[in-house]
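User: Can you predict the 3D structure for this chain?
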Amino acid sequence: MLSLIALTIFKDPSVFVDMTAELELAPGDSPACWADLNGDGWTDLISGGAVWINLEGRKFEKRQTVGSCVAADCDNDGDVDLASWSPKAIWINDGEANFTKQELPSLPASVTRGACWTDVNSDGWVDLYYGGYENWGDQISYPDLLLMNNKGSFTLAHQSADHRARGVTACDFDQDGRPDIYVSNYRLMPNDLWSYADDKMINRAEAFGVLGGDKEFRGGHSIGSCWGDFDNDGRIDLFAGNFAHVDSRGDQPKSRFLRNRMTAFDDMGTCGIYYQESYASPGAGDFDNDGDLDLFFTTVYPTASFGKKNFPVLFSNKGRFDFEDVTAGSGLENLGATYQSSWADFDNDGDLDLLTDGRLFVNGLTDSNWITVNLSGDGKVVNGAAIGAQVRLSVGGRTLTRQVEAGTGEGNQNDLKLHFGIPNKARRVDLEIWWPNGQTQAVNNVRTKRTTTVRYKAD
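Assistant: Here is the predicted structure, written as structure tokens:
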């Protein structure tokens, strides 16, 4: 097992080691997507435009080229399919991780840097949202595109060219049965929060206070954002990641945490995410298994304005929206400029590993407690990969919350399996599952330090 090999070279817990070469992996420095593509229980990877099959945590085997992708079961047949934006296409899985390209209907010209799957109309079939950006130097805002899933075929249901989108990510943060799509927009343009109602998309960003800007600027140079319950109160919050210049236009909006109050969000400010000009794509995950969602945040430039060096940073969540830079000694020091930031426990040893800067860093955490939850829908009222489902775990007076999501940061995707670090030695825990159709399910007395699989069943 790779985890045993890796542990022999780790001297300290929570230290990351670059094992890319040993794993025979060449992922490229491009958006990364984790998902179990062949149903063998080992999380596979799409990166560098290619499918990489995980051979029981020992090494990866390169398969076909599909482009940058996000993953979900779009035809509800029980395996994970892909949607690429380079080019825009659907890739249908035969169940063995062999993909057949399915062309999409004729679409308006659009440059895309990120996408997500979510079931916008709650019909049990995941729909697809492509962000629309720009070509460098032109004055055109290319449209965002919503493709509605009609039981395996797709039609263009909405387009918006108001802003210049970078990352796209979705969450039903208020559990009203309508997943909301958060779009990170560049050029100091306000971010969007799209919700589908009455057969149309409604932008609720201003009403909920998540424009991404501040009192001076309505929007920031947002590149990537991520959802996560950062204060363990059972409500899923939002982090807006801003590339913030300090120039003649003023001190531009910094990255910010937005605390979910269900009917609105509180702007919590930077919460310890200290200023670097060229922050890019954030990735949320509990790397140290203490129960709090931590943050890895990449940068666009190795050297920003005024000769200032910029580096990706690993921030540890100390609770109550208090984050601390713990990069020094983590094995993630002085990484290069990258948009790649994606978490998965690829070796099934109970801790999250990180793909960034074109390398896979294996987590050396030891002697910790954890549980992984693998959800699946029935393919009828809940989509096959259970995109949009939320799981809550109560422990030590805190409520840990995770959601199944297909798209985060700018163009990345964390594993569809939900990882919980458990901050005590509990051998069994109780779970509450909130399915995207609004049904709740209690799963009690679940053993820790293993993966538990739950399939949706109607009441």
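The chain has two helices and 37 strands. The mean pLDDT is 94.
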